[in-house]
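stage 2 :: seqdesign
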């Protein structure tokens, strides 16, 4: 299935939200991105990663959402660097880190469970690559499921 149109639709929908207006910077390919992941599972995973980035980013900075031709999704945001000892726990259920933002701490845990269930992986990086601030979540699609 081509997951690019689904991600494009999701990003467009989320960008219409008052809290996200002008904050999502998409880098989505025009060419098909074929994957064996269920499109609904991919949409849930991507929504959780994007919502997390919007919630925990500096409000004046955009959230970058890119999808490569080989099916690698990157969601990155500006903000404080997450210490390494916290970064390794952030995808555990109910782990919220040091934040004033609302939420239950389940978004990254759900994304991680979906990734694992589809043979994919999620890597969390802070600071984001090429910067001295922020956070990036990278989802790599697994093989056939």
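stage 2 :: out
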């Amino acid at each position: 299935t081509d997951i690019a149109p689904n991600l494009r639709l999701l990003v467009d929908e989320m960008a219409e939200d008052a809290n996200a207006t002008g904050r999502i910077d998409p880098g989505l390919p025009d060419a098909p991105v074929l994957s064996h992941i269920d499109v609904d599972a991919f949409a849930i995973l991507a929504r959780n990663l994007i919502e997390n980035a919007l919630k925990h980013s500096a409000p004046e900075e955009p959230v970058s959402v890119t999808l490569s031709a080989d099916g690698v999704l990157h969601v990155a945001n500006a903000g404080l660097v997450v210490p390494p000892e916290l970064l390794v726990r952030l995808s555990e259920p109910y782990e919220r880190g040091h934040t004033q933002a609302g939420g239950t701490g389940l978004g990254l845990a759900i994304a991680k469970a979906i990734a694992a269930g589809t043979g994919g992986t999620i890597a969390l990086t802070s600071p984001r690559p090429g910067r001295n601030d922020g956070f990036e979540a990278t989802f790599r699609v697994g093989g056939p499921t």
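stage 3 :: structure notes
- Helices lie at 4-15, 39-56, 84-87, 107-117.
- The chain has a mean pLDDT of 86.
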